[in-house]
C-alpha cells in the first residue's frame, strides 16, 4: 500500500508538478473527456484533480452579470462553480418549461465554460437554498396523494420527469460531450427516515441517469451507495466528518459541497463570519485530505422577484467572497484567493498522497505537552499545514522550532519552514474598501396611484376563506379576502383573530379604510393564530361594512419534508370580537388573486398608461397599498462598468413592498430594523453588525436592467411609504 502510493507520487506528483500545470477545464474543453474518482479525488481523464469551487446560483444574478461573475471567480482562484437547478423557475406551470432570462441555464453553463470553469450541477430537484419552497413548484401541492421527498409514486414521477428533462437539456454541456459539467447531485440534505426513497435515488443514478457518465453526489445526509456522500458544514474536519467519511466510505473522495456563509432573515441585524474562521476551515479541509471545496455561497446574489424563502432578505448571503451586489468582500476575497492559488499550485503533490495527521507538542507555560488539538499535516517534500484547534494563541513545536499559532488557525510552510500563508493574518489586505456614491438624489418626480381596495377583477367565492396558494398558485404574493360584516359593537379595541401561517402579513380594512397589520416573518413554516386589536370606534354597530384582509406571502418555507406542505393566507377561521366571520351561504367570502396594478402590469412601459397617475405624489405619503412611479437617468455614475461598480436602490423612506426597474421585480424591500442578539443567530457566524439599522437598506439593480436614460422605477408599498422623496440611487465603487 505504502510503496504503491510512493509510486503514484513519483508518476503523477513529481512528474506532473514539474512538467504540467494542474488540470483545468481549459485543458479538456471541446473534446469528450472522462470523469471518475478514486479514494483520494475526482479524476479527469484518469488524473486526480483538485476542485476549488464556489456556489453561484444563476437566477440570483442575471445573464448580463454572469460573464463578469465567472471572470471574477476564475481570477479569485476557483476552477469549478456549482449551482442548484431551480425547478420552480423552470416549470412555473405544469408541463411548460422555461429557460429564458435568468432561467437560461445553458447560457450560464456556457459562460462558466468560456471562463474555463468546471461545473457541479446540483439538480435536486428539491434544493432548500433559502429559496421559495426549496425550489418546488407550488402546484405540486395540488397533485393527489403527493408526499414530497419520499417513496411516493406521485413524488417520484414528478421528480424523475423533471430530472430527466434537465439531464437532456444539459446534455451538450456534459464532460462526455466536451462540456464543463463533471459532477451532478441528486436530492439534497436528505435526513428523513425513508431508506427505500434513498435507494430509489441511487437506482435513478445507476439506471436512467447513468448515461451522463459523471459521478453523482448526495450531500449532508443519507446517501445511496451509487453516490458520493459530501459534507455541508462550517468546518468538516473539526466537526468529525472527515473521520466518519474515512471510516464509512474509505473508497470515496472527500468533497465539501457547502462551506456555509449562511443567510440573512428580515428583522435581524446583518450577521458575519470572520475571514479568519473561513480561512481556517478551508485550510484544514485541504490539509485533512479534502479534494473538492465549495463556498456556499461564493456569490450569493439576490432573491429577485418572488424567489426568497420564508422570512429571507432579498440580498442572499452577502458576507461571502463576492458581495450580493458583485463587489469583492475584503479581506475575505483576497485572503482566500491566496490560499486557493497556493492549493492549486501544489495540487498534484497534495493529491499524490494521503493525508497524515501528526500531533505536535505545545508550550503549556512550563513545558512542552503532547498536543490533542495541535497537528501537522505533512505533504513531503512540499508543504506542511500546522493547525491549532484550541481557542487561544500558543506556541507549537515543529522541527525544533517554536511556532506561535493563533487560536483556530492554520499556517502553511514549505519544507524549509518558510511561511507561505497564515489563516489568521490578514494585516496586509485592505478591508472594507468600497464606498457608496449617490448618483441620483431624490426627490424624484414621482407620480402616485392607489391600489383600489375594491375592483372589478374576477373573484373566487367560498363559504369560508380559502387557502391562498390554492387560488394564487404562488403566481403573486398578494390575495385579497373580502366579506360583508355587521358589527355587533364598534369599539376602540376590537380583537380580530385569523388562523394563518408563519411568514405571512395581513392588512385589515373596513369599507376601504386601513385599520392595521399583522406580520410574522419567521424563517420557518407552521400555523399560527394572528391576533390584532383594531380601533373600530369610528364605525357604527348593526351596520353592514365591507371587511377586507390583504394577505401577503413573505416567502414559502424551503425546509420541505414528506407532508410538510406549505400554505399561505387564511388557513382556518376569522373571528371579530369572538364572532366567526363566514359559514353563511347567503354571505360568501370573496377572493381576488393579486393586485389591480399587477393585473395591468403598471410597472412596465405598456402597462403604466392603463391607470391614471396623480402627479401630486405627496398625496400618496403614508398611505397603505399605494404605488409610486418615476423616471431617472444615470447621469452621474462614477465608473462605467456597472457590473464591477454596481448600482443600488437606496430604499430609505420606504416601508415594505416591491420595487420594479424597467418592469423587472427587484424583490421584496423592507426597512424593518435589525435586532442584535446576545449570541450570533446561527452556526458559522461570529458577530452581527449595524444593530437597529434596517436589515437591508440597499437593493442591487442588475446591470442589464438599466439604461443610461429614462429608466422607469415603480414602487408598490403595502404599509405606506413615509418619505418617498428620500429614495435615490447609489453606485458602489472600489477605492483604489
Ligand atoms: C439562452 O441564451 C442563449 C445565448 O444568449 C440564446 O441563444 C438562447 O436563445 C437563450 N435561450 C432562451 C430560451 O431564451
Ligand atoms: C399514496 O401514496 C402512498 C405512499 O405514500 C401509497 O402507499 C398509496 O398507495 C398511494 N395511493 C394512491 C391512490 O396512489
Ligand atoms: C448499500 O450498501 C450497504 C452496505 O454494503 C448494503 O447493506 C445495502 O444493501 C446496499 N443498498 C443497496 C440498495 O444496494
Ligand atoms: C513559545 O512561544 C510562545 C508564544 O508564541 C511563548 O509564550 C513561549 O514562551 C515559547 N516557548 C518557548 C519554550 O520558547
Ligand atoms: C502578518 O503579515 C504581515 C505581512 O502581510 C507581516 O508583516 C506580519 O508580521 C504578520 N503578522 C504576524 C503576527 O505574523
Ligand atoms: C374593469 O373596469 C375598467 C373600467 O371600468 C376596465 O377598463 C377594465 O378592463 C375592467 N377590468 C376587468 C378585469 O374587467
Ligand atoms: C357586500 O355587499 C354588497 C352589497 O350587497 C355587494 O355588492 C358585495 O358584492 C358584497 N361583497 C362581498 C365580498 O360579499
Overview of this protein structure:
The chain has 736 residues and is α+β, with helices and mostly antiparallel strands. The chain has four domains: 20-345, TIM Barrel (Alpha-Beta Barrel); 356-422, no CATH class; 434-449 and 598-734, Jelly Rolls; 459-594, Sandwich (Jelly Rolls). It contains 14 helices and 39 strands. The strands form nine sheets. It has an eight-stranded parallel barrel with strand order 4-5-6-7-8-9-10-12. Strands 22-31-23-28-25-26 form a six-stranded antiparallel beta sheet. A five-stranded antiparallel beta sheet has the order 13-14-15-18-19, with helices on one face. The longest helix is centred in the N-terminal third of the chain and has 18 residues, at 2-19. The chain is globular. The relative contact order is 0.12. Residues 1-20 have low confidence and may be disordered. The structure holds 2-acetamido-2-deoxy-beta-D-glucopyranose (7 copies). Residues 456-457 line the site of one 2-acetamido-2-deoxy-beta-D-glucopyranose.
Amino acid at each position: 500500500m505504502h510503496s504503491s502510493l510512493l509510486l503514484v507520487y513519483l508518476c503523477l506528483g513529481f512528474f506532473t508538478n514539474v512538467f504540467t500545470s494542474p488540470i483545468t477545464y481549459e485543458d479538456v474543453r471541446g473534446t469528450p473527456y472522462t470523469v471518475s474518482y478514486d479514494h483520494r479525488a475526482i479524476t479527469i481523464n484518469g488524473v486526480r484533480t483538485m476542485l476549488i469551487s464556489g456556489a453561484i446560483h444563476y437566477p440570483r444574478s442575471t445573464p448580463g452579470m454572469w460573464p463578469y461573475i465567472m471572470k471574477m471567480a476564475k481570477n479569485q482562484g476557483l476552477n469549478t462553480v456549482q449551482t442548484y437547478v431551480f425547478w420552480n423557475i423552470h416549470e412555473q406551470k405544469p408541463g411548460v418549461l422555461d429557460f429564458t432570462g435568468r432561467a437560461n441555464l445553458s447560457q450560464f453553463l456556457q459562460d462558466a465554460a468560456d471562463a474555463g470553469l468546471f461545473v457541479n450541477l446540483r439538480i435536486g430537484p428539491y434544493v432548500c437554498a433559502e429559496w421559495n419552497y426549496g425550489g418546488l413548484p407550488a402546484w405540486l401541492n395540488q397533485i393527489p396523494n403527493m408526499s414530497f421527498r419520499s417513496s411516493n409514486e406521485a413524488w417520484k414521477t414528478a421528480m424523475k420527469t423533471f430530472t430527466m428533462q434537465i439531464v437532456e437539456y444539459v446534455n451538450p454541456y456534459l464532460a462526455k460531450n466536451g462540456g464543463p459539467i463533471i459532477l451532478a447531485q441528486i436530492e439534497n440534505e436528505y435526513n428523513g427516515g425513508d431508506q427505500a426513497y434513498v435507494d430509489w435515488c441511487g437506482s435513478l443514478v445507476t439506471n436512467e441517469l447513468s448515461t451522463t457518465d459523471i459521478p453523482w453526489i448526495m450531500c449532508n445526509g443519507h446517501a445511496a451507495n451509487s453516490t458520493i456522500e459530501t459534507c455541508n458544514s462550517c468546518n468538516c474536519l473539526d466537526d468529525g466528518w472527515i473521520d466518519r467519511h474515512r471510516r464509512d466510505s474509505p473508497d470515496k473522495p472527500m468533497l465539501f459541497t457547502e462551506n456555509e456563509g449562511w443567510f440573512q432573515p428580515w428583522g435581524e441585524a446583518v450577521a458575519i463570519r470572520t475571514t479568519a474562521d473561513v480561512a481556517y476551515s478551508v485550510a484544514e479541509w485541504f490539509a485533512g485530505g479534502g479534494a473538492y471545496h465549495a463556498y456556499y455561497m461564493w456569490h450569493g446574489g439576490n432573491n429577485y422577484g418572488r424567489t426568497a424563502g420564508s422570512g429571507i432578505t432579498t440580498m442572499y448571503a452577502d458576507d461571502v467572497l463576492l458581495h450580493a451586489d458583485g463587489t469583492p468582500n475584503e479581506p475575505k476575497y483576497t485572503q482566500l484567493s491566496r490560499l486557493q492559488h497556493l492549493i492549486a499550485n501544489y495540487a498534484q503533490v497534495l493529491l499524490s498522497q494521503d493525508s497524515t495527521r501528526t500531533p505536535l507538542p505545545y508550550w503549556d507555560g512550563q513545558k512542552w505537552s503532547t498536543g490533542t488539538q495541535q497537528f501537522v499535516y505533512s505533504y513531503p517534500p512540499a508543504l506542511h499545514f500546522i493547525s491549532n484547534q484550541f481557542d487561544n494563541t500558543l506556541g507549537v513545536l515543529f522541527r525544533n522550532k517554536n511556532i506561535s499559532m493563533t487560536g483556530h488557525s492554520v499556517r502553511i510552510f514549505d519544507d524549509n519552514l518558510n511561511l507561505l500563508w497564515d489563516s489568521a493574518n490578514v494585516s496586509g489586505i485592505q478591508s472594507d474598501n468600497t464606498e457608496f456614491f449617490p448618483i441620483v438624489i431624490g426627490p424624484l418626480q414621482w407620480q402616485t396611484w392607489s391600489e383600489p381596495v375594491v375592483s372589478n377583477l374576477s373573484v373566487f367565492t367560498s363559504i369560508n376563506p380559502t387557502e391562498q396558494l390554492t387560488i394564487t398558485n404562488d403566481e403573486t404574493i398578494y390575495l385579497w379576502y373580502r366579506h360583508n360584516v355587521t358589527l355587533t359593537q364598534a369599539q376602540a379595541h376590537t380583537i380580530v383573530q385569523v388562523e394563518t401561517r408563519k411568514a405571512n402579513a395581513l392588512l385589515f380594512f373596513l369599507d376601504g379604510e386601513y385599520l392595521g397589520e399583522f406580520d410574522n416573518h419567521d424563517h420557518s413554516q407552521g400555523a399560527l393564530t394572528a391576533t390584532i386589536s383594531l380601533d373600530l370606534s369610528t364605525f357604527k354597530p348593526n351596520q353592514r361594512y365591507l371587511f377586507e384582509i390583504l394577505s401577503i406571502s413573505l416567502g414559502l418555507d424551503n425546509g420541505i419534508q414528506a407532508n410538510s406542505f406549505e400554505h399561505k393566507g387564511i388557513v382556518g377561521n376569522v373571528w371579530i370580537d369572538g364572532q366567526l366571520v363566514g359559514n353563511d351561504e347567503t354571505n360568501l367570502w370573496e377572493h381576488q388573486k393579486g393586485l389591480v396594478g399587477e393585473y395591468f402590469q403598471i410597472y412596465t412601459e405598456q402597462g403604466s398608461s392603463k391607470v391614471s397617475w396623480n402627479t401630486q405624489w405627496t398625496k400618496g405619503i403614508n398611505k397603505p397599498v399605494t404605488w409610486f412611479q418615476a423616471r431617472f437617468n444615470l447621469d452621474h455614475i462614477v465608473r462605467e462598468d456597472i457590473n464591477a461598480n454596481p448600482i443600488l436602490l437606496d430604499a430609505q423612506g420606504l416601508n415594505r413592498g416591491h420595487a420594479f426597474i424597467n418592469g423587472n421585480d427587484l424583490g421584496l424591500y423592507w426597512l424593518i430594523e435589525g435586532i442584535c442578539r446576545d449570541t450570533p443567530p446561527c452556526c458559522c457566524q461570529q458577530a452581527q453588525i449595524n444593530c437597529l439599522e434596517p436589515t437591508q437598506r440597499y437593493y442591487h439593480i442588475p446591470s442589464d436592467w438599466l439604461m443610461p436614460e429614462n429608466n422607469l422605477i415603480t414602487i408598490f408599498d403595502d404599509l405606506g411609504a413615509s418619505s418617498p422623496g428620500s429614495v435615490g440611487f447609489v453606485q458602489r465603487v472600489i477605492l483604489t
